[in-house]
Amino acid sequence: MKRSYFLAIVVAASLGLPAFAADAPKPLKVLLIAGGCCHDYKVQKDVLKKGIEERANVKVEVLYSEDYELKNGKPDATNPKFPIYGNPDYAKGFDVVIHDECASSVNAPATIDAVLAPHRDGLPAVNLHCAMHSYRFGDYSKPVSPSAENGHWYEYLGLQSIKHGPQEPIAISFVDKASPIVKGLADWTTIKEELYNNVQILTGQALAKGKQIVHEKSKGTDGKDIVTDKEVETVVAWTNEYGPKKTRVFSTTIGHNNVTVEDGRYLDLVTRGVLWSAGKLNDDGTPAKGYGPGGKIP
Fold it and tell me: Which residue among 37, 77, 104, 224 has the highest number of C-beta atoms inside a 10 angstrom radius?
């Protein structure tokens, strides 16, 4: 035994310290893709980055775009430009990709195929809100076959959604209490939010449902407005195993408004989704050793 090695052990013992401290693992490298139509991504991208990094040993790199293709000579926010488009290797070096883009008019099959390429190859993913309404074409208003050319994005998600209702509070209830992603999380009701519909649930495994009261107007026989309350409930969070490599994919349709994205309960859910997708979440819902805040190991 070398003298310096022996002295280190003696000094550590005399101070009541462990002889060796386990090195913290490197942070998970996460690529957050944000931008496109209808949301305050300029603010939300930073909220997500900060919230996730505070909750887990994760380093989030943001790919944000405010650049859009033109439609009738004007920028079309439903058709954002991202440098990843057409590049199947865009996620090299990352452990997880978070899709938070709203790109409903990005519909070229080759472009969609390249976005999906790293996930087919096994790279874990998280999808937030409008990502569910992106990369669509053809008659997507009806249930599509996952094997159809316009069904590949829904096959990856594990669930098909095409629209949302009015902004009203959503009562979220966790339905798979055994899942580590939601274990111990309490049901809650959001502010006014968008409830996405479920055209069909493919291979997705429901984690949470959202219930919303929608106020529908109709005309009475006397010509006066009649307001009827209608209860709508859909799956709002789920997991999926995608492709031959059974890539772990977590998705939630919640997260339209800044107040919701800033909510600690929402950030807890998304962070757990990130850790689960990468295989770094314990069965009890806590981060795996070394993947909690700061990566510290006791």
Answer: 104
CA-CA distance, 260 to 252, in Å (whole number)?
12
Which tokens is 21 given?
Answer: 């401290």
Count CA within 13 A, CB hemisphere, residue 95.
16
- Tell me the CA distances in angstroms from 96 to 1, 31, 271, 274, one per residue in order: 43, 6, 12, 7
* Token pair belonging to 196: 């996405």
Q: From CA 272, how far away is CA 266, in angstroms rounded?
A: 10
Please tell me the pTM assigned to this model.
0.90
Q: Distance (Å, rounded) from C-alpha 253 to C-alpha 260?
A: 12
Q: Are the CB atoms for 21 and 251 separated by under 8 Å?
A: no
Q: How far apart are CA 207 and CA 126, in angstroms?
A: 14
Nearest to 227 by CA among 297, 155, 166, 163: 166
Q: Which tokens hold the place of 129? A: 């809100």
Q: What 8-state DSSP symbol labels residue 206? A: E
Token pair for 116? 């999906």
DSSP 70-104: EETTEEEEEEE--TTTT-TTTTTT-SEEEEEEE-T
The token pair at 208 is 């949470």
Q: What domains are there in the chain, each with its CATH number?
A: 24-162+236-295 (3.40.50)
Q: What percent of the chain has pLDDT over 70?
A: 92
Checking if the pLDDT of 60 tops 50, the result is yes
Q: Which of 212, 209, 191, 200 is nearest to 253 (CA)?
A: 209
